[in-house]
């Protein structure tokens, strides 16, 4: 193995002085250090040197996150963060023990995590990214999260996986390292400060989370192939994440939170898709709504305590309206054309394109296909299928938060899709079977989760393409991501056009409303409101707000030598102000000693004075 060394010279701060090197017989042309050096991208040296190096690497990632935050497309920010930026520290965490919670390195890790959280806060600028939402964001996409991994969560699995791989492979080349790479979960106490001790500490912390970690560290038996560091780390992280997700689900307090958490866990494709084409891209406003729902955050732009009402049916929160977008999808007061056009129609057309791509004879909205007079028109018909008859397909959009399904959806994954598919089958199956065809419901939940029959049909289409196993998997991944993004776009578009409006008579959001929030950006002023009334008290905090006095006017004082030409005074006040207070940044008039824009008092009242222009 060829190593690359980069050492500091004797002249650099913290290194040995040049005369010390000469006394030791080191040539003056040779770089040397008494603190440490970097070997193959990893620091080797004193604890301070290692901590400083890690801090520099963390700083570079934080700087890159600041640059990333300037990218206009939030979906692109997410993809680069998830698939590139968050992997920058993985190699370093495999070669260094960074999991000790009170070490210098862990302090740099907390800086890293704080910067990551600030970046994710920018995805939902209308609300606060609270701890529960941040916890969801750090889960894998397969567990309903956004796929972000914090520094602390990566530390122990990465280092322990690297140690387990080295313990399996290195003794075959260097037998004298067998004792140094002993079992980290063994009974013999390791030497303090050794690599074995660091691995033992990491293993102990992981075993407290899930005892199955011990089985993953077992050396391969005879004839078994040793697993790579990447695979060991992935399996350890999956065990730990599963346990954390289980405990998190138990901590959820409402039925809706549990129902949507289970449903989002059935969709690992929406936030894994990269915006490489229009079909796979979410605009920033739609991405914000999708992330908010994924993190169980409200989608309303006003954060005051006043009630919200549906802009279509005028119902209020507590009477069927919610601030998470469920009612926006369900309200049918105006027939909800957006749900049909933007969500339903756009999605079944994606399926139609996929069927045609594999060579199936499929058509959309075939009139008079059913021989009976039911006036039913299927969304898609696949002609001359291998099943011996045509396949009649109808697409169903299902909302997990619907009142008649949310209770069971909180305990049964895909219950909303099952209920929608069952209802369609009850209405269609008998009529379709009478003419020898097969009915197939394609049900999708508003989270992007597909019904089992839809997944099976997609797998059949992938098999029809032929090719290798890798090509079939690529086909499945592309179309699953396209369907998931199309669903997310349609749902967000419907919600955006029907966000509940605030009924509060209040001033715009003030900075003092967010004094209790650390590292959070104050939401912008709400866009949707009913006609504003003039309030006297701020609704969120009860503070009195300044209100303009209708009896105050601008008074002219052209003949008063010691004051500017005009000042703010009550109506009918002939006297000039008593005194003036200089204001920061104002300019003096050329013919008056008093500053323009100064504050004046007259009989206990404060007035603003000064000419608007010279």
Question: Would you give an account of this structure?
Answer:
The protein is an alpha+beta fold and 614 residues long. The protein is built from 18 helices and 14 strands. The chain has helices spanning 18-23, 47-68, 74-83, 90-95, 104-121, 131-137, 151-173, 195-209, 213-216, 229-251, 255-264, 284-294, 326-330, 337-357, 406-409, 415-434, 452-464, 469-496; strands at residues 5-7, 36-39, 42-45, 308-309, 362-364, 380-382, 391-398, 438-445, 501-502, 552-556, 566-570, 579-581, 599-602, 605-608. Strand 2 (36-39) and strand 3 form a beta hairpin. Helix 7 packs across helix 8 (195-209). The radius of gyration is 33 Å and the shape is elongated. The protein starts with a strand and ends in a 6-residue tail after the last strand. Mean pLDDT is 81; it is low at 1-14, 525-543, 545-557, 563-573, 578-602 and 604-614.
């Amino acid at each position: 193995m060829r190593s690359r060394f980069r050492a500091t010279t004797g002249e650099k701060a913290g290194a040995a002085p040049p005369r010390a090197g000469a006394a030791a017989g080191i040539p003056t042309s040779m770089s040397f250090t008494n603190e440490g050096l970097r070997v193959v991208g990893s620091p080797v040296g004193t604890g301070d040197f290692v901590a400083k190096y890690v801090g520099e690497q963390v700083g570079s990632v934080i700087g890159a996150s600041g640059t990333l935050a300037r990218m206009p497309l939030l979906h692109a920010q997410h993809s680069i963060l998830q698939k590139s930026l968050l992997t920058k520290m993985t190699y370093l965490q495999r070669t260094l023990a960074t999991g000790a919670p009170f070490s210098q390195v862990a302090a740099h890790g907390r800086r890293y995590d704080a910067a990551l959280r600030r970046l994710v806060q920018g995805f939902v600028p209308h609300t606060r990214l609270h701890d529960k939402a941040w916890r969801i964001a750090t889960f894998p996409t397969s567990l309903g999260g956004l796929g972000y991994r914090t520094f602390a969560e990566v530390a122990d699995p990465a280092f322990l996986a690297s140690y387990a791989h080295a313990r399996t492979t290195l003794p075959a080349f260097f037998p004298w390292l067998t004792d140094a790479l002993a079992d980290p979960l063994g009974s013999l106490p390791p030497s303090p400060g050794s690599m074995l001790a660091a691995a033992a500490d990491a293993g102990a912390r992981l075993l407290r989370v899930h005892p199955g970690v011990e089985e993953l560290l077992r050396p391969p038996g005879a004839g078994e192939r040793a697993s790579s560091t990447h695979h060991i780390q992935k399996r350890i992280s999956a065990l730990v994440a599963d346990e954390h997700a289980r405990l998190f689900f138990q901590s959820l307090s409402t039925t809706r939170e549990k129902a949507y958490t289970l449903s989002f866990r059935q969709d690992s494709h929406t936030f894994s898709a990269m915006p490489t084409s229009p079909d796979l891209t979410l605009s920033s406003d739609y991405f914000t709504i999708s992330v908010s729902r994924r993190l169980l955050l409200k989608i309303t732009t006003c954060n005051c305590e006043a009630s919200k009402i549906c802009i279509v049916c005028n119902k209020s929160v507590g009477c069927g309206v919610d601030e998470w977008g469920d009612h926006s999808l369900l309200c049918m007061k105006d027939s909800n054309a957006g749900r049909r056009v933007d969500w339903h129609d756009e999605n079944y057309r994606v399926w139609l394109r996929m069927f045609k791509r594999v060579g199936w004879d499929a058509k959309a909205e075939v009139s008079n296909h059913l021989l009976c007079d039911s006036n039913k028109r299927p969304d898609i018909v696949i002609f001359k299928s291998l099943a011996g008859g045509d396949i009649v397909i109808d697409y169903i959009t299902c909302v997990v938060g619907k009142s008649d399904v949310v209770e069971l959806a909180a305990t049964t994954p895909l219950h909303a899709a099952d209920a929608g598919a069952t209802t369609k089958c009850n209405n269609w199956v008998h009529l379709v079977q009478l003419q020898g065809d097969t009915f197939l419901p394609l049900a999708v939940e508003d989270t992007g989760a597909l019904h089992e029959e839809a997944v099976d049909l997609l797998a059949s289409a992938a098999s029809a393409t032929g090719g290798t196993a890798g090509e079939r998997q690529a086909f499945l991944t592309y179309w699953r991501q396209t369907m998931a993004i199309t669903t997310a776009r349609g749902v967000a578009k419907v919600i955006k056009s029907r966000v509940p409006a605030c009924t509060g008579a209040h001033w715009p959001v003030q900075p003092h409303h967010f004094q209790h929030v650390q590292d959070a950006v104050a939401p912008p002023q709400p866009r949707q409101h009913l006609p504003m009334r003039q309030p006297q008290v701020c609704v969120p905090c009860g503070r009195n707000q300044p209100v303009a006095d209708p009896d105050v006017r601008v008074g002219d004082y052209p003949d008063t030598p010691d004051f500017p030409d005009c000042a703010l005074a009550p109506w009918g006040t002939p006297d000039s102000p008593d005194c003036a207070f200089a204001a920061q940044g104002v300019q003096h008039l050329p013919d008056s000693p008093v500053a323009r824009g100064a504050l004046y008092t007259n009989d206990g009242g404060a007035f603003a004075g000064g000419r608007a222009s010279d």
